[in-house]
Amino acid sequence: MITMISHSKLHLPVFVEKDEDGFFVVECPILKGCYSQGETLDEALKNIHEVMEMCLEEKEC
Q1: Among the listed residues 21, 28, 23, the one whose alpha carbon sits nearest the alpha carbon of residue 3
Q2: What is the pLDDT of residues 3-55, one digit of tens each?
Q3: pTM summary value
């Protein structure tokens, strides 16, 4: 499943998979090392949004 996450006016793709333990694993392939997980899809998307913000802030420095 591919979803788009918005960062201000920036839209980035994310890949969502459900692992063997039932967790949702989310990755933004454009940002190196940008991945997260959650017990629910909503939690996983919230978590990846926070990680994406950190990755983008790090690139600005």
Answers
A1: 28
A2: 555 555 788 999 999 999 999 999 999 999 999 999 999 999 999 999 999 99
A3: 0.79
Q: How many domains does the chain have?
A: 1
Q: How far apart are CA 27 and CA 2, in angstroms?
A: 10
The amino acid sitting at 61 is C
Structural domain of residue 42, as residue ranges? 2-60
| Calpha distance 48→26 (Å, rounded) | 7
Q: Looking at residue 17, which CATH number applies to its domain?
A: 3.30.160.250
What's phi and psi for 39, nearest 5 deg? Answer: -70, -30
